[in-house]
UniProtKB/TrEMBL annotation:
Protein name (Swiss-Prot/TrEMBL): MoxR-like ATPase
InterPro entries: AAA+_ATPase (IPR003593), ATPase_dyneun-rel_AAA (IPR011704), CbbQ/NirQ/NorQ/GpvN (IPR050764), P-loop_NTPase (IPR027417)
Superkingdom as given in the UniProt entry: Bacteria
Boundaries of every AAA+ ATPase domain copy: 33-211
Amino acid sequence: MVSSIEEVQERLAAQQYIASDEIATTVFLAERLGKPVLIEGPAGVGKTELAKAWAAATGRPLIRLQCYEGLDETKALYEWEYAKQMLYTQLLRDKLNAVLADAATLREAADRIAQEEDVFFSLRFLLPRPLLKAILSDEPVVLLIDEIDRADAEFEAFLLEVLSDFQVSVPELGTLRAKHIPTVFLTSNNTRELSEALKRRCLYLFIDYPSLEQELAIVRLKVPELAPQLARQAVELVQRLRRLDLKKQPSISETLDWARALVALNAQHLDRKTLESTLTVLLKHEADLQRGRRLLNGGEEARRPRRAPPWASDS
Ligand SMILES: Nc1ncnc2c1ncn2[C@@H]1O[C@H](COP(=O)(O)OP(=O)(O)OP(=O)(O)O)[C@@H](O)[C@H]1O
Ligand SMILES: [Mg+2]
């Protein structure tokens, strides 16, 4: 159990994750209140990484459920191991024959098989998927439910049930309860609105692009080979690029890729040629590249239009 927000920050930093006060406070509260954290934000800002880093920071296993369209309970919760059941049936054929040997009628034989049913519908033949793994775990775990917005709304409703009491009922086995409530992180890229019910159940964390100082700290930590002055210049440029009206803003992972590219090219300073030849590491759309180049050439910075607040919409 962590005792302070600072401790959360320190533990995450030891795993090379730079957490803002807001991130650290949310993680601290999640642990204290035993509530899941729903993390939203643009691509590549460290949503998934936060769950991984927290698992490593607490020495708990990370169990990950990657969501996608069509994901259902059998892939998320459990499946019966049909092939193994069949194999056991084959191997136990002699034994089964003995059980059925003196059955007078078909009905009697079926009844006898039914009496042995629990042999074949036991934990031995249950294949736990991530959610059940987290529930059955003997030690506390971190459960990452990644990109929940890709799953269907029905799956979200099912998840809500699991998250509310951490128990599942398997008809053949009864109710299975979690020995330890897992620390749960759900991430979403906002491709669709999540239900109010899910949000109500969770603590909410929006991770935005980092400030200049935060991003510089991440670069210094992850790419220490890059000269400090060059690192600062690079991050300053990334921050300026993000203010342009781009199709896709460069993410932290792209800043890190760029920093590594500069090291690989043994760049000493950010001259025009280096910038021109490496801009594609940051910007991945032709229109964005053109805007980026205009900026490098001292052109006007076409500012990113500020989004109108929802209450100002026409509809
Ligand atoms: N606060 C941070 N401290 C250290 N590294 C970070 C931080 N945020 C992001 N990173 C780096 O950025 C990379 C991308 O992060 P991550 O994959 O978690 O992004 P994401 O928000 O889950 O993106 P996506 O929405 O595309 O899945 C990570 O591998 C990590 O190296
Ligand atoms: Mg992710």
